[in-house]
Amino acid sequence: MERAGENRRPAAGKPVPGVRGMGNRRPLKELNNLAGAHPYPYAIAKKPMLEKTGRNEKKPALVSHRPLTRHRAALLENKQLPDHLAVAVDAAEPEVDPQNEPIPDDTAETDEEIELVGGDTDMDEEEQEDIVDDVSLMDIDSADSGNPLAATEYVEEIYRFYRKNEKLSCVRPDYMSSQGDINEKMRAILVDWLIEVHYKFELMDETLFLTVNIIDRYLEKQVVPRKKLQLVGVTAMLLACKYEEVSVPVVEDLVLISDRAYNKGEILEMEKSVLNTLEYNMSVPTPYVFMRRFLKAADSDKQLQLVSFFMLELCLVEYKMLKYCPSLLAAAAVYTAQCAINRCWQWTKICETHSRYTRDQLIECSSMMVQFHQKAAGGKLTGVHRKYSTLRFGSVAKVEPAHFLLGG
């Protein structure tokens, strides 16, 4: 049985072919999506199909009606235009009103004008190639152009949005002065403990940074007694898990991990308090989102990624680091990690372009990270150091600190 043509209805009495009977039928994306097709094709033909005739009539070629400028008219009089352009001008001449001469189109360049413009440039081919190379080097997303999850078409707009709104995720660096029963040391103990809980539950990196951000934003607006501080931390992790994780820990697990200091009802009541205080705003740019972008600009390997996150998590424990915005913390962590691994100052032009921070802008924050790195193994709060001393995290905590950064 012959298959019905693409633009022909099947003969009367013959069944319409189903999906399996399509054979080599072209996919829908190739039909009615070609240039010149009706934007809203009808499902049912409004007019009878035209029968094919034996005639093969050729449609006349479309004539380009270019405005007749004075310059082109002068060239035409001197017969300096090529034949095909002269024909086009002749076709356009009857439409020109001699009483109303069209305004000269200065933007339309003739072949002679294009040659003059090209001849006046001072840039040689080598300089042009250098510019092309620089542009290609700055494009760090070309390798992911085929990956829809990378969203390369929108990534620049996304990070412009992050930069515009990162101040919303920041808190006053002195908010602890309004707390009467807790202090920055208690906050450090809580965050260090939550890092261990995060590691034990094998949660995503995004969850940890959002947890600490929720805690700081809540403590900035609400006075919390000492006995409720751990409850705030546990509840913040529950909210962060609901926002970031695919599999969320149940409330009973959080009750057990806090040694039954709080019951399920208290956690759910605190959850409502936190959400109402923060006005349900969980969508804030944390240092994590900037870290992923800057590591990509640095063409990082596994070691650089782990050392960078080690530096950044050391900063989570320190209350004094709240004075730096998330993007600066992320850029300084990548810079400090590069210096620790390569034992030299290293901050490429690509990193500077995508982070928008120069080395001089990072040196103060990086010096503080080196100090945290030096004392990470000692003291009472060693949760981050023990985490990154495991084989799972490549034992990167044992990397020698970049002492030379302390001298500027």
UniProtKB/TrEMBL annotation:
Q: Please state every residue range assigned to the domain named Cyclin-like.
A: 192-276, 289-371
**Mind telling me which SUPFAM superfamilies this protein's record contains?**
Cyclin-like
Q: Which GO terms describe its molecular function?
A: cyclin-dependent protein serine/threonine kinase regulator activity
Give the keywords, sorted. Answer: Cell cycle, Cell division, Cyclin
Higher taxonomy: Eukaryota, Viridiplantae, Streptophyta, Embryophyta, Tracheophyta
Family the entry assigns? Belongs to the cyclin family. Cyclin AB subfamily.
Q: Which PROSITE patterns match?
A: CYCLINS (PS00292)
- What cellular-component terms does GO give this entry? cyclin-dependent protein kinase holoenzyme complex; cytoplasm; nucleus
Q: Does the keyword Cell division apply?
A: yes
Q: What is this protein called?
A: Predicted protein
List the residue ranges of the region (Disordered): 1-26
The organism sits in which domain of life? Eukaryota
